[in-house]
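In the design runs reported in the main text, the only information available to the sequence generator was the tokenized backbone. The following block is the verbatim input for one such run; it is reproduced so that readers can re-run the procedure and compare outputs position by position.
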């Protein structure tokens, strides 16, 4: 079984994540290829797409959201993701049990005496008038039936698990601040029937799609990305289609045979990633892109900078400027490249009104 070292895995990840070279894909196709984008922070996907797509214009994503081609919804790991309408319709039912268990993991005591079927029916009855509601409004509407549970556990179970929901625009539009207003996914997408029908072979589709965007990867990485229990039956069903490698730890890594695996010496440009980017969170073993010493940055919501393909700095904004804080000493060349890309990012974030970028001392 061929062995792939960490640098080879890094280059494969960058290529699959559209971070080795900006792609010319339409925004819809990029979101589909990536298997969705982490989106609990509404403005972060714009930076993620800017770093991946040539000539990305925020209006293109806005149009997909308002046109109901891309939606904001709870899915992988119970977190909010941007997904294409087609993917969420096909995939959502496969995630139902995981979503319920994740909410119960937080509120098991509060929801112990709540029949989840009755709660779902009560929530759908409230939403039957077609009016979007916040989680709090929906929870308060049903709380009288389960007063001991409390509104927050009831609301989270309804919105994140029991009823497939969409967070409606203007939430998630470019430079727009808006609260979360929820509507059932079938109603927003004009699909008759609720609940959604499970798609045949969706587990196998998820395995293939994950490897296309994240491979080569172990089943533990697939589990970390999706929140599902490794999809063992689906992996077994498609295994003959796949090729296998070993990483430096001896783990088996699976991959699509014709997927790109650039050489380890392939140059990697500086890239700025948004908070919670799946290029990092999409793995159990994240050492291919971030050192274990800095692993906590990715779950703390820090925005990071890739230098030579690895997390090497964090970044934030200060007024109209992008500010970079290195995690190690940068060479003079690296500082210039980080400053140049930071300047481009500042121009993107300010619609060209500023190109200020500051790289702080190492």
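Verbatim output:
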């Amino acid at each position: 079984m061929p062995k792939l070292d960490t640098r080879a895995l890094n280059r494969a990840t960058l290529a699959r994540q559209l971070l080795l070279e900006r792609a010319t894909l339409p925004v819809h196709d990029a979101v589909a290829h990536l298997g969705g984008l982490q989106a609990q922070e509404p403005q972060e996907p714009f930076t993620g797409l800017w770093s991946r797509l040539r000539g990305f214009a925020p209006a293109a994503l806005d149009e997909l959201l308002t046109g109901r081609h891309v939606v904001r919804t709870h899915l992988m790991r119970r977190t909010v993701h941007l997904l294409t309408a087609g993917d969420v319709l096909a995939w959502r039912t496969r995630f139902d049990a995981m979503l319920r268990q994740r909410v119960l993991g937080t509120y098991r005591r509060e929801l112990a005496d709540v029949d989840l079927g009755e709660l779902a029916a009560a929530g759908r009855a409230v939403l039957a008038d077609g009016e979007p509601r916040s989680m709090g409004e929906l929870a308060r509407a049903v709380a009288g039936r389960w007063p001991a549970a409390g509104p927050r556990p009831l609301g989270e179970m309804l919105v994140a698990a029991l009823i497939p929901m969409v967070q409606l625009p203007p939430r998630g539009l470019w430079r727009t601040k808006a609260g979360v207003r929820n509507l059932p996914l079938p109603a927003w997408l004009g699909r008759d029937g609720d609940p959604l029908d499970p798609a045949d072979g969706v587990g196998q589709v998820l395995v293939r799609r994950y490897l296309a965007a994240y491979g080569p990867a172990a089943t533990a990485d697939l589990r970390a990305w999706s929140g599902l229990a490794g999809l063992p039956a689906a992996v077994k069903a498609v295994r003959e289609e796949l090729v296998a490698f070993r990483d430096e730890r001896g783990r088996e890594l699976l991959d699509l045979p014709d997927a790109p695996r650039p050489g380890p010496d392939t140059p990697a440009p500086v890239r700025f990633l948004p908070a919670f980017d799946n290029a990092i969170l999409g793995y159990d073993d994240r050492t291919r892109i971030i050192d274990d010493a800095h692993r906590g940055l990715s779950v703390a919501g820090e925005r990071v900078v890739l230098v030579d393909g690895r997390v090497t700095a964090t970044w934030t904004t200060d007024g109209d400027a992008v500010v970079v804080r290195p995690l190690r000493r940068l060479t003079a060349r690296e500082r210039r490249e980080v400053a140049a890309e930071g300047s481009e990012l500042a121009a993107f974030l300010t619609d060209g009104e500023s190109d200020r970028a500051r790289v702080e001392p190492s």
